[in-house]
Amino acid sequence: MGAPALHEFIQPDPAWVSREIHGARIFSPNGTPVKIDQPNAGYVLERKVFDRVLAEMAAGAGADIIVKAPVVGITKDKNSFVNGVNFRYNRREYTSSAKIVIAADGVESQVGRWAGIDTTHDLRDVDVCAQYLMSGIEIEPDLCDFYLGREIAPRGYIWVFPKGDDLANVGVGIGGTISGKGGKLAIDYLNEFVKKRFPSGKILAQVAGCVPVGDSLPDLVADGIMLIGDAAHHSDPISGGGIANAMFSGMFAAEAAIEGIRVGDVSAEILRMYQVLWDKDIGKNFKHICQIRDSVLKFSDELFDRCAAVLNKTPNKTIDMVTIFKTVLRHQPRLLLELRHLVLAGWV
């Protein structure tokens, strides 16, 4: 997670920071590395501990927390406003009433669908991911590594995020339209990479899932309800990162909830304040990022290799996103035409 975003909400604690990150390496399809030095860039988090600390903070602020209690439905009042949820806990079903429901139930939010919000994804706007926690591997413990290539991670990338001197999250994300083609799933691409890059590494844990990489949902609210995080399609369209955006969307939704309760009106019209705050701060960029992503996805492996060869000879401390873009532009001038409106706006 990026340092500036994290600092907006909470100060880092060694209890849940696995590693401080000071840069990255991007490997082109033929293995050419491009190193980017960025001191204090961010952190690799110990998510289970981090999430528990956030829960402790919420409890300390007065929240009641119920774990292992899946929501199985919503309730509505006579005006069809969402006013609570039904949930299962210890094999019994309960109903919890609420002035406002904030749904954070992940990709293709079921709670949102029950409320009448279309939360479905086009397969082109999701990545299918698999990740191992591995030990006994040779890594750069202060750098995040990214591997590109149509053969190793079609329409996505492989990542190595250090969590210790020889411990790292090693994962892959591939395009939703590609998953299953030729009988290959994300886990198959990951296994191929691990076998080649970390043959003696040990797998300690495994996770898999789906990540939104498209634009934000057009409707984030309905009467009595708001959607945040992955439920609102708020993961970054290029990186797929979602922690920071989820925290920002939660903050904006909280501000709208406070206002709705204050004025005694939790209609979609009032709660749309959340959508306005989101669009003004972060959401306005999503369409631009999606356009950049769509252009980059057209690049051939050969283009990535040529650009990496040039950047590899550039001093690490001078490499940033502007340098990378200018290098790509020299090799792919038609990109200037495709993104001309973003260039004029100072975006790239």
Q: How would you portray this structure in words?
A:
The structure is a single chain. The protein is of the alpha+beta class and 348 residues long. Helix 5 (243-263) packs antiparallel against helix 6 (268-281) and helix 8 (301-311) packs across helix 9. The two termini are 23 Å apart. It has eleven helices and 13 strands. A seven-stranded mixed β-sheet has the order 2-1-8-9-10-7-11. The chain has a three-stranded antiparallel β-sheet with strand order 3-4-5, with no helix packed on it. The longest helix is centred in the last third of the chain and has 21 residues, at 243-263.
Keywords summarizing the entry:
alpha+beta, 348 residues, disordered C terminus, 13 strands, D-Amino Acid Oxidase, Chain A, domain 2, 7-stranded mixed β-sheet, FAD/NAD(P)-binding domain, 3-stranded antiparallel β-sheet, globular
Write the layout of secondary structure elements.
Elements: H1 3-9, E1 17-27, E2 33-45, H2 47-60, E3 71-76, E4 82-89, E5 92-97, E6 101-103, H3 110-114, E7 126-135, E8 144-147, E9 157-162, E10 167-175, H4 186-197, E11 202-212, E12 221-222, E13 225-227, H5 243-263, H6 268-281, H7 286-296, H8 301-311, H9 321-331, H10 334-338, H11 340-344
Parallel strand pairs: 1-8, 6-13
Antiparallel strand pairs: 1-2, 3-4, 4-5, 7-10, 7-11, 8-9, 9-10, 12-13
Helix pairs in contact: 5-6, 8-9
